[in-house]
Write a structure and sequence with these properties.
The protein contains 15 helices and eleven strands. With 327 residues, the chain is α/β, with parallel strands linked by helices. It has a domain of 161 residues: P-loop containing nucleotide triphosphate hydrolases (Rossmann fold), CATH 3.40.50.300.
Length: 327
Amino acid sequence: MAYSKVALSKTMELAGEPKALIKLNKAIQQHIIGQKNLIESLLVGLLCDGHVLIESLPGLAKTTAAKALAQGIDGKFHRIQFTPDLLPSDVIGTDVFNQDTHEFTFKKGPIFQNIVLADEINRAPAKVQSALLEAMEEKQVTVGQSSYKLPDLFMVIATQNPIEQEGTYNLPEAQLDRFLLHVVLDYPTHEQEFAIVNLDKNPVVIEQTSQTEVLEARRLVKQIYIDDKLKNYIISVVQATRNPQLYNAELAGWINYGASPRASIAALRCAQAYAWLYGEEYVLPEHIQMVWHNVLRHRISLSFEAQADGLTKDDAIDALLRVVAIP
């Protein structure tokens, strides 16, 4: 693929910049074995100033990875266990009456941290889930008539268990779209699990990256060059989720509705982040291929017929990628 010399000269300037997060990526992977997709997705979410939804069975290092990320960026971490009796004020905070001053003062909730782990988010009722919407989109919370700004470095990592659906509240599409990525974890392989059971159980010591370096890395990621041909490819795939009948008649019967323009933006930003993490100076087609499943998984809906046939969203995404040509 041909790239303009002017665009490449701009990205060449990035080669000498410090890349502490690349070292952090390698360090966390040395301590959390078999979850490369999870760790890289969390770092991509951090670099893109986005939020990540993780779906997996228990015991696959979700909390450990979130804590390691917070430790690595010298950030404040808080885990919120979502339950049916949780209230919005338990998450965002509430006004408390001060008897000495006879005034109400705002007591911050646990969401005022850098990394917030919303554990089993689908176990909380809709009011609590919606309390996260403003925080995730606007980086602020509103209580009464006052709004309170969240930290510049703020990220929600939400989890949900795919096997226990009793007593849960499915996340609405509007909130799912607020997540940059939807990551599904698999069990480790035999070799990976052998390494896990032999892993040293001493506390993990990770060299810290300053929050200033993270914010600078975000700026650099936005400067990673992506050719217009690849931008058009991204848009074509997202358009195909909305008009699958133009590509494949069978695929048209699988998808109820397609992804919003947020999917195009997310795919582009995440591809830039992957290119930066892998030390590249511009986005390659393989960087875009890395992000499709995590970007589209929560943004498309399968038809009843597709679900009855045992098809998954990943099957539909695989079919989409086969019918849209890579430039």
